[in-house]
Design a protein that fits this description.
Keywords: Cytoplasm, Methyltransferase, RNA-binding, rRNA processing, S-adenosyl-L-methionine, Transferase
Number of helices: 18
Pfam family, one: NusB
Number of strands: 13
EC number: 2.1.1.176
Strand content: 5-15%
Mean pLDDT: 95
Shape: globular
Structural class: alpha/beta
InterPro entries: MeTrfase_RsmB-F_NOP2_cat, MeTrfase_RsmB-F_NOP2_dom, NusB-like_sf, NusB_RsmB_TIM44, RCMT, rRNA_ssu_MeTfrase_B, RsmB-like_ferredoxin, RsmB/NOL1/NOP2-like_CS
Helix content: 40-55%
Low-confidence stretches: none
Catalytic activity: cytidine(967) in 16S rRNA + S-adenosyl-L-methionine = 5-methylcytidine(967) in 16S rRNA + S-adenosyl-L-homocysteine + H(+)
Largest sheet: 9 strands, mixed
């Protein structure tokens, strides 16, 4: 019997929103159960937009129910959220959004609740304007961001906060990076356009390509041959800031899944070590290196404890892609807004301090350390770099600007939506030669 896509999505969304499961893992596991690519596309849209808008429509369902279903029947509660997502975000027809959702209630084995689901969705349609106005009155439900994050954005980026949250809720473009060791950007664009893909050159990233919508990249010409990789434009900035030269020794710390490491190898003939704490994630680095026909040493180890893996020879360049709150990539990872807590930030800061302090002695005089996070919080970004500069007398900030984003106290912050990019922070710290 063919699985009901909406029922699958409801059970998966309940796992993500109420039990802390990874959206990516839930998507991959459930997509295998659907043979029709149209069903898989609907599943992905329901799960992604359900996670993105959960904080808005979860609250709406509470307003519509006399007794909450969230804990008593989490899958049906999630199905109701998805009913509103279909009506308001995906803008499906009334039949698809209501009748098919009611039918999914029966597929979930809850036929007694089918009438309730129908009544709630019909009531939403009748009282829509009033209910939407109530949701729009609070930042948390207006933009579907946790209250602590909305407050942090208004504190750290008061003039940009509303635009950031709006950008977090828009579909991002698909961005690719040409592997210049195996192709040229113009030739790859021509190849993709000939196959029907609306690919164009990024306006200021030398290796970047942009497609308006996500697609299955594994089916695109050139993927198996390693001609390109998927990488948001904000992440492609790292290779420029590294300022590489042939023959340099380079460390990419916290390297998984390997996008920045591969980009560095595509740019120059370097001796690169890709360090990753998690062995399974290290295997993903190896897979990406293999597909792109690149070579690096992949090492399993803790960036904050070099004694276990460092061989004693200094590095000319160090990339610290530090573990962080991921608050800059909510548009691509919408479940982060459901799982991240304000109480997580001090532990993240402690980890960031530990890593940069441990790696600074490994940098050769005259070298540069590029500190990177996909966070928009100043506490994880310029605060950490400022502490390093204050603690190390041989450290000096390297000034730079980018065509998108904003100067921070130290370094540069790309906010979500700046140049249609993900949110990412960069700082470059040079080590004095004497």
């Amino acid at each position: 019997m063919k699985p009901d896509t909406r029922a699958l999505a409801a059970k998966g969304l309940a796992e993500v929103a109420l039990r802390g499961a990874s959206l990516r893992d839930v998507m991959e596991r459930n997509a295998r159960r659907l043979a029709d690519p149209r069903d898989r596309a609907l599943l992905m849209a329901l799960l992604s937009e359900g996670a993105r808008w959960w904080l808005r429509f979860d609250a709406a369902i509470d307003d519509l129910l006399e007794k909450p279903l969230r804990h008593k029947d989490p899958a049906v509660h999630a199905l109701l959220v998805l009913g509103l997502v279909q009506l308001e975000i995906l803008q499906l027809s009334d039949y698809a959004a209501v009748a098919a959702t009611v039918e999914a209630t029966r597929t979930l084995g809850r036929p007694p609740l089918a009438g309730l689901v129908n009544a709630i969705l019909r009531r939403w349609q009748r009282e829509r304007d009033t209910l939407l106005a109530r949701l729009d009155a609070r930042p948390q439900t207006r933009h579907a961001h946790p209250a602590w994050l909305a407050a942090a954005l208004h504190r750290d980026w008061p003039r940009q906060a509303e635009a950031v949250m709006e950008a977090d809720n828009r579909e991002p473009p698909l961005m690719l990076r040409v592997n210049r060791q195996r192709s040229e950007r113009a030739a790859l664009i021509e190849q993709l356009q000939a196959a029907g893909y609306a690919a164009s050159a990024h306006p200021w990233l030398d290796d970047g390509l942009v497609l308006p919508h996500s697609t299955d990249v594994t089916r695109m010409p050139g993927f198996e041959d390693g001609l390109f990789a998927v990488q948001d434009g904000a992440a492609q900035v790292a290779a420029d800031l590294a300022d590489l030269r042939d023959g340099q020794r380079v460390l990419d710390a916290c390297a998984a899944p390997g996008g920045k490491a591969c980009h560095l190898l595509e740019r120059a003939d370097i001796d690169l070590t890709a360090l990753e704490f998690d062995a399974a994630r290290g295997e993903r680095i190896r897979q990406n290196l293999m597909r792109l026909r690149l070579d690096a040493k992949v090492v399993t180890g803790d960036a904050g404890a070099p004694k276990s893996w460092w061989k004693g020879q200094a590095f000319d360049r160090i990339l610290v892609d530090a573990p962080c709150s991921a608050t800059g990539v909510l548009r691509r990872r919408p479940d982060v807004r459901l799982h991240r807590r304000e109480s997580d930030i001090p532990a993240m800061q402690a980890q960031q301090r530990r890593i940069v302090a441990a790696l600074w002695p490994l940098l050769a005089p005259g070298g540069r350390l590029v500190y990177i996070t996909c966070s928009v919080l100043r506490a994880e970004n310029e605060a950490i770099v400022g502490e390093l500069l204050a603690a190390q007398p041989d450290a000096q900030a390297v000034h730079f600007t980018l065509p998108a984003g904003h100067a921070a106290g130290v370094g540069w912050q790309i906010l979500p939506g700046d140049g249609d990019l993900d949110g990412m922070y960069y700082a470059v710290i040079g080590k004095r030669a004497t």
